[in-house]
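[audit] Reproducing an earlier prediction to check determinism. Same input, same settings, fresh worker. If the tokens differ from the archived copy the diff job will pick it up downstream; this log only records the rerun itself.
[audit] input (148 residues):
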Amino acid sequence: MKITDLKPPKGAKKKRKRVGCGPGSGHGKSACRGTKGAKQRSGKEYGPGFEGGQMPLIRRIPKRGFHNPFKKEYAVVNLKRLEKIIDKYDEITPEILKKEKIVKKDLPIKILGDGELKKPIKIIAHSFSEKAKEKITQAGGTFEIIQE
């Protein structure tokens, strides 16, 4: 056996399709593009939503609503969720809420007033509802707002 005898297995190598190289190639004249129209011409492409001139689906469907790009999003925590960890700590901070897995997202924290506090505690967060402020002070605790 010589190196010249080595050949790839049958069917492994395919002839390159020679498009537009005359009638002998089998892909001559219109080069497999059909006849006339934009699809036959070079450089002309239709957009992803083009539907042959018909009104595209994206324009047929009604648009509703409004998205406010300036909306401030918060990770909300109710007082009843804080009641479960209140015995472990003398003050509650955003870091503690993340460590205890009460807050999962990395967003500013807002404390809401659903639930009751039985023990005075200092709570540090980015925002508080009026009801939460009221309930924290009634229990003898304090709250501190973090400025961003």
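[audit] rerun output stored. Observation attached for the diff report: The chain has a mean pLDDT of 90.
[audit] end
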